[in-house]
Each structure stands twice: as C-alpha cells, then as structure tokens.
Amino acid sequence: MARQTKPLSVKEIESAKPKEADYVLYDGDGLELLIKSSGSKIWQFRYIRPVTKKRAKKNIGPYPSVTFADARNYWAETFGLNFWLDGFYR
Known about the structure:
alpha+beta
C-alpha cells in the first residue's frame, strides 16, 4: 500500500532551510519541492514512463518564481487528467 503524504503548506515551504545535502519536500501525487544545499528551491514532478517503466522527473520551475499555487495548477493541467489518459501513472 502506498504511503500517504500530507500536502505541503506555504509556511512549510517558506521555512525550509538548506542543509549540507539536497533534500525533498513531498506534496503528494509526484509533486515535490527540491531544496538544494545552495538554498535554491525547485518544483519538480516525478512519474513513471509508460513504455520503459523507468522513473523520470520534470522540473516545473524555481520557487518563488513559480508559486505553490502555480506548481499545483501546472501539475493539474499538464500531468493530471491528460497524464492518466495518455497512459502515464505515478
């Protein structure tokens, strides 16, 4: 059974501080925020390619240029229903 992920909040995103190594904050359904050791924050989406069955990721853009709401909307428009209809899945 898949692990349940608690959706991120704006407060969690803004308070995320860089560490020695890069780390990820998960929002669920493949949407995540990569916190780099340099301090930059990058929205990305992880998925499995339907043909090769290999994991892949797509960078959406840097935070705060791409806001939390923008990242979720981008995911919904780009990867949501169309992704499922095209045979892609988490």
